[in-house]
């Protein structure tokens, strides 16, 4: 009898468990049905609009553009083909979350396009997609986009409000070039690369903060940003500043270069408004014309221990505010036209390490009146590097005769230090 009771209890518990499990299954099924009911249905396709079987918007006829010139891409469209809206008179476009790709020049040359609303979900925007949209004022880039291809917003002259969401990793070359009304831009911390010419001729841009993961400022990235007054490298690990990266940034009076910097490429700050510059200790290469025509530059601080041994071609050419130059020990060569036409230069000190001074290195330095050369034997002169100058040459006392015999053109007299 005792065993009969145990069997009944086991059967009861098993039946209860199965009932509960069945109820649980029913509940899950109901939830799935509820989710399906909440899915957004595809919008109907207007007459005059062609969408292929893959969900690509192929054509939007002029007759399908509403009187208010506002285009709402139907939900369900997955991509917008190349040049679909090119040269149309649309004023605003709303792109739904179903769209994952905008094609090459899809909205290029739309002179009346003022605003673009992009929903989360877009993954790709083609090159020149909004090129020369002369009325475009505002645009947002959602977090779903990781890479912006080249020249998407190139030459949009009234663009002033750009929202780049966190998640963006690459800004393509010439992205915002010639967006002359763009006053500010917040670069997301996720950014890893900014392409050549990305902000070229953004002449209203006032300041920029370089994110930590950026390791290079590439060629002409901020060239001709004439109102750019502040560049903050505080959190970055930039090791290379490319050719003409900050050329002609007239409002840029000072800059703190990152300690990680190893290369300053040709013309990096040419024609900028810099008044002083401190070169970081890790710098290995100072290429041609880096600071050429920096007309307000008065102070150049070299590292105490140099990792480079040459002042390159035209590096300080036409720096007309330089009054005194002290070449640091470790420099062996002053290259062609390195200080040419530094018309305010009066005093020059050459280190013990100097071996050669190249053609035209100090030509046009008409106020140069004093040179101190610490080298025991006269360095080799190519051509006449001090043409146009008349100066007193101070040299180590034991080597006065050697310098007199070296025939430095421009030296009025040689005097012992």
Structure description:
The protein has 417 residues and is α/β, with parallel strands linked by helices. The chain has a domain at 309-417: Alpha-Beta Horseshoe (Leucine-rich repeat, LRR (right-handed beta-alpha superhelix)), CATH 3.80.10. It contains two helices and 30 strands. The chain has helices at residues 2-38, 400-406; strands spanning 49-51, 56-60, 70-72, 79-80, 92-95, 101-102, 115-118, 124-125, 138-141, 147-148, 161-164, 170-171, 193-194, 207-209, 216-217, 230-232, 240-241, 263-264, 276-278, 285-286, 299-301, 310-311, 324-326, 333-334, 347-350, 356-357, 370-373, 380-381, 391-395, 411-416. The strands form eight sheets. A five-stranded mixed β-sheet has the order 1-2-4-6-8, with no helix packed on it. Strands 3-5-7-9-11 form a five-stranded parallel β-sheet, with no helix packed on it. Strands 23-25-27-29-30 form a five-stranded parallel β-sheet, with helices on one face. Mean pLDDT is 91; it is low at 1-38.
Topology:
Layout: H1 2-38, E1 49-51, E2 56-60, E3 70-72, E4 79-80, E5 92-95, E6 101-102, E7 115-118, E8 124-125, E9 138-141, E10 147-148, E11 161-164, E12 170-171, E13 193-194, E14 207-209, E15 216-217, E16 230-232, E17 240-241, E18 263-264, E19 276-278, E20 285-286, E21 299-301, E22 310-311, E23 324-326, E24 333-334, E25 347-350, E26 356-357, E27 370-373, E28 380-381, E29 391-395, H2 400-406, E30 411-416
Parallel strand pairs: 2-4, 3-5, 4-6, 5-7, 6-8, 7-9, 9-11, 10-12, 12-13, 14-16, 15-17, 17-18, 18-20, 19-21, 22-24, 23-25, 24-26, 25-27, 26-28, 27-29, 29-30
Antiparallel strand pairs: 1-2
């Amino acid at each position: 009898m005792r065993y009969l009771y145990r069997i009944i209890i086991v059967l009861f518990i098993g039946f209860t468990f199965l009932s509960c499990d069945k109820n649980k299954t029913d509940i899950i099924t109901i939830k799935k049905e509820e989710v399906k009911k909440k899915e957004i249905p595809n919008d109907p396709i207007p007459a005059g609009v062609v969408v292929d079987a893959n969900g690509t918007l192929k054509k939007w006829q002029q007759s399908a553009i509403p009187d208010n010139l506002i285009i709402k891409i139907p939900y369900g469209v997955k991509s917008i083909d190349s040049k679909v809206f090119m040269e149309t008179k649309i004023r605003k476009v709303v792109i739904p979350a179903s769209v994952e790709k905008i094609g090459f020049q899809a909205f290029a040359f739309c002179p009346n396009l003022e605003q673009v609303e992009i929903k989360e979900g877009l993954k790709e925007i083609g090159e020149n997609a909004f090129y020369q949209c002369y009325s475009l004022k505002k645009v947002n880039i959602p977090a779903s986009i990781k890479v912006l291809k080249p020249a998407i917003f190139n030459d949009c002259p009234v663009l002033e409000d750009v929202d780049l969401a966190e998640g963006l990793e690459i800004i393509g070359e010439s992205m915002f070039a010639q967006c002359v009304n763009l006053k500010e831009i917040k670069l997301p911390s996720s950014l890893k690369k900014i392409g050549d010419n990305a902000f070229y001729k953004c002449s209203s841009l006032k300041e920029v903060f370089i994110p930590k993961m950026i390791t290079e400022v590439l060629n002409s990235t901020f060239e001709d940003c004439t109102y750019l007054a502040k560049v903050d490298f505080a959190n970055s690990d930039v090791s290379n500043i490319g050719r003409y990266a900050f050329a002609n940034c007239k409002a840029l009076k000072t800059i703190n270069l990152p300690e990680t910097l190893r290369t300053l490429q040709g013309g990096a700050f040419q024609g900028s408004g810099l008044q002083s510059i401190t070169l970081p200790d890790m710098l290995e290469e100072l290429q041609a014309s880096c600071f050429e025509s920096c007309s307000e530059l008065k102070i150049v601080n070299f590292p105490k221990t140099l990792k480079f041994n040459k002042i390159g071609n035209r590096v300080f050419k036409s720096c007309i505010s330089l009054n005194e130059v002290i070449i640091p020990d470790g420099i062996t060569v002053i290259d062609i036209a390195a200080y040419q036409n530094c018309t305010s230069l009066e005093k020059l000190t050459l280190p013990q390490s100097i071996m050669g001074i190249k053609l035209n290195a100090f030509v046009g330095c008409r106020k140069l009146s004093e040179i101190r050369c610490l080298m025991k034997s006269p360095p080799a002169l190519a051509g006449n590097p001090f043409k146009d100058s008349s100066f007193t040459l101070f040299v180590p006392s034991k080597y006065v005769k050697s310098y007199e015999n070296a025939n430095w053109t421009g030296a009025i007299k040689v005097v012992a230090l």
